[in-house]
Amino acid sequence: MLYTAPTNFYQVTIPTNYHLVAAAVPRNQTNVSKIPEVENALRSFMGNIPSLKFSRYNLTAQAGAVKLDPQSLPQSTNPVASTPTGEIVNVIADRQEYNAKEQIFTATGNVTVKYLNTELKADVVKLNLITKEATAEGNVFLQRGDQRLRGSTLSYNYGSSKGSFSNASGFLDLNNLSSRVNRLPSDLGSRSSIINVFGDSSSATVSKAISRVRFKADKIFLDGDTWTAENLKVTNDPYDPPELEIRANKATLTKITPTQDRLDSESPTLVFDQGLTLPVPFNSIVLDRFERSFPVRIGFDRRDGGGFFYQQNFNAYTEPNISFQVSPQIFLQRGLEGNLLDANILGVVAKLDAILPDSQFFTGRATLSGLNLANAENQLRANIQYSRPVLGDHILVAQYAYRDRLFNGSLGFQDVSNSLGVNLFSPNYVLGDSGINFSYQVGAQYIGADSDRSDSQPIVVASLARLQGATALSRSFPLWRGTALPAERETGLKYLPEPVTPSFDAFLGVAGNYAFYSSGDYQSYLSATVGVVGVFGNFAQPYFDYTKINISYTQGIVGGRSPFLFDRIADPQVFTFGIVQQVYGPFRVGIEQSWNPVSGRIVDSNYSLQYDRRTYAIVIRYNPTREIGELVFRISDFNWNDSSNDSSSDVTPVTGGLERR
Known about the structure:
The protein is mainly beta and about 650 residues long. The protein is about 5% helix and about 55% strand.
């Protein structure tokens, strides 16, 4: 027997393959009205409800410490929603009614509405065609593409694009955020195949396992492309209770451009293991496709900073293809050891990135290690770089540097007064099925740097042209693979966001380079490197369940001699040993040293203390050879670049006569 609708209700039996499809109680699946205006209203509602996620091209975040004026945020235009046509709308419910007089459509009991890639489930869904107000109540579940949201009540006006979501929870899938890929070809140095235990510290490659950021909010208000959350909790931990949460009394996500969003929060805090709470030193984050540094940096730089320093990164200007970052520095140790009112206790770093058409990139960086303008020429360092693809898969890089800071092994730090030139980098080729990697580079520069080739003066600044070419061959040999533990809370994911796979590999590399200088000097270098790298244990037990070792030896032959100190090959033979060892629970200690076995001098060294958790890590690094170090707080799945990488600082290492930018 068909359901008998009250007065003022339409009741029309429709075929199940019609655009508006519905089900009644199990015995009667056809007592639903065929009403075009309801169908169009459902299309408008389902097609225009916004997604609570970042722009497609967003990748990384940059924060500032000053709360932005809400009036500076772009105002929502609240466009009038259009009425999509032609696509199927599926409605399934225990009961469906349409009040023709009040123009209200109601679906009750196990309601499912599907339109395109959007699905809405609730106990009750109600549509007011006059006010264009839609509500979903009870066990609300909204899925759009890869995004899933749950809550108790959803209210949304598809005419004004405003609404709210009560007791909302869901996640953001970071796997779908695209990234800028602009890496130069494989390293061409004599130690190009070495897997550095500090640069490959497990956490650097574990973002593949945990890639969803969960959030909860008492209420989310929707206004066009802007959403505001009350009592927001965000975590990258898939388990409850989470190890790490970011909490804010209020947070607003505003779309700046199609590729940029800005997240502003009030009183944000970090909560560790539902206990320790620390304030977050920034409350505004710009999310876009630029790779930037972590918002806060605590470091040590004896040579340029006088010791310990604090750095805060501010997003000064941002556009879809342009990013300008200003980072004030306070040289704490210099101030404590000297005059607190001295202008030299303050410094600044400025960085400009621009993405140009046709995969072209421009970047510029300038640092002032003091604000004593009378001595600015000795405190300023600057570097600008332009790159573009050429010859299909090659990269052409043009660069100018002023007072470039380079580190050349046992020769230590060297300043290059001026450098202007171009380099052509090949991609990394794999030679057939051999597994051998091959790459090369050629370049020409005009350089002004310290030289000791004059007999009358020990060291002078010489200005010379340099032509340089280099090539490298390398191959790795997997010798053994262990078994990773299951990706579960108390096993494989106990201390890291991805299970550790034990392994043992050997590697072999051959490299050569040749440089010719306008003075008539030349320098050639041919080297071979052999080594092993192994990971033992699964990092799941309380003691000594993780050991990573790295051993390599490089033997080289040098011909000629560079007139400059910064690229002179003084360490043709280098032995390197590194180890990272779990000592207790999440604590790991690391040490790596490279030394010249002929002279006995240490070429480079690194020490680290790491506290690793599934969702975050705290790392203390120190390099006694370079006298630099830092305290790093790393949050898994947030793609801030690691400031320990030389590319994010003003130190350029030189290995085998080649600068590693």
